[in-house]
Sequence to fold (220 residues):
Amino acid sequence: MGILNTGIFGGFRKKTGPLIGRRSRNQNVITGLHHKSNKPTTEKQLVAQHKFALLNSFLSGITELLNLGFKKHTKNNSTANAAYTYNYPHAFLPQEESWVLNYPALVYSRGHVAGPQGVEITLVQNPDMRHEVVFKWALQAQSEYCQFTDRASFLVYSPTKQRAVTVADAVDRYAMEYRFPLPADIDGTDLHCYMSFRSANGKQAGNSRYLGVIPGDNNP
Fold:
């Protein structure tokens, strides 16, 4: 039974006959019932489904960073959808008869705040015998979009485990270093590393930057 929320000219929710009503992003949305198709899936559809699963597996684990880095690019969309739309055209590379993610081309943040320069990433062992990724970057001259107080965010992604580990607003630009402790389940796997800055007040974001991969067999 459909339920009218604002009179006969307003939207409704739940099911009425062949229609389904719901409220999404402050808009009334009405869709038809979904019918399972008896047609066989085409090769083009299979490729599209595979690409969707690949990119979604990456983006679904970094919601916090997307909310910070894509919030000014959503329009009437979610940050996850905005990031998906932006990344999709350059997110894939052909491999044999399939596709893989183009990790260096993926971004989780967009904006005018200056990105990191002169970044070095290394894998080290801390006194507790656990591994850490050490991010080091050069200090840049201050300007409108480059302040010592800008906050740094980091992403380490393991394709083997399909797992992202993130930290937002971890340290300021002036720190010039951050030690990222690795969870045990991704230690020893290939690790793709990213970094970005955003303003201290959170109003301006910067482009995230791909920093490279630490091979899984590169343990100290």
